[in-house]
Amino acid sequence: MRIILLGFGRVGQSLARILHGDADRIVKAHGFKPQVIAIIDSHGSCQDGEGLDLDLALKTKEKYGTIAKYPKRGQRDREPTALVSESDAEVVVEATPSNYEDGEPGMSNIKTALATGKHVVAVNKGPLALAMPALLELADHRKVKFRFSGTVGAGTPFLSFAEKCLKGERIVGIRGILNGTTNYVLTRMDEASISFQKALAEAQRKGYAEADPSNDINGLDAAAKVVILANWVLKRKVSLRDVAVEGISKVSQERLKRVRAAGKRVKLIARLGDSRASVKPEEVSSSDPVCVPGTLNALTFTTEHAGDMTLVGAGAGGEQTASAIVRDLVEIRHEYLA
Ligand code: HSE
Asked: Per residue in 28-38, pLDDT tens?
């Protein structure tokens, strides 16, 4: 499987580490060898039709801050859409930062990849939040696979759980925590009594926050995930405009303590029902299954016949998100490239 990797930040580098370190396991377990033939970062690119040396790519990035310095095969200022459309790669992995204004550069990257007949694995939420129905239609039209399991819950397979394990059921509501950074910040402010700014700085250092962390704090990141769940799981054509969003910036330490004394916690709760979609801070009983600490995400799916079920797992982090990319690659391989 020949892959182009767009974006070589925390997630892209974690993916390179997994593909390099787990190459034998992937070949043995799944019968194929993912081969990265091009990588692009914000300064340039490197390309090798025979497959890049991922260890060398990681060392180059660490030493020079850009992949453009990859020995002999690196170059500055390569336009990603040109590289994608001219390449014979089978899969494009889109891991550039999420942008909720116009979705770029991810929007053009994904459209170009799908339009030129390549399967796409995206962890970039911007294009999905803004134009999911159109992108799914384009993939369908070109008969290629568009996967994005890492956009919701990082490595925790909320989307696959709903899509595959709840087949035949009617999901009537989804409720829970969809942003690891804000959950981490609220937990640290509450349990360690540290300030909002300090807790956020920790989340950034640990690689949980978005490139622009205001998208976590103001609820936009969780709202984007609500849009993805609505379109993919509930088959509702929802966009960001349809989600009522309030972030956590007004949640004070005093409120956290008061709520805790009453046996509850303040959490940034996402809700998706038949006609409404929202993200806002709510007071949740500490015995509620979605009341989880740290960077955990938790979603309760309410079904018509089987009742409620809750899935919990790490919701942020480079390695966790890269694990979801590997899952999507394996699925594409099994369904389309066998
Ligand atoms: N910034 C996101 C979060 C990363 O904190 O949940 C995972 O999408």
From this structure: 998 888 999 99
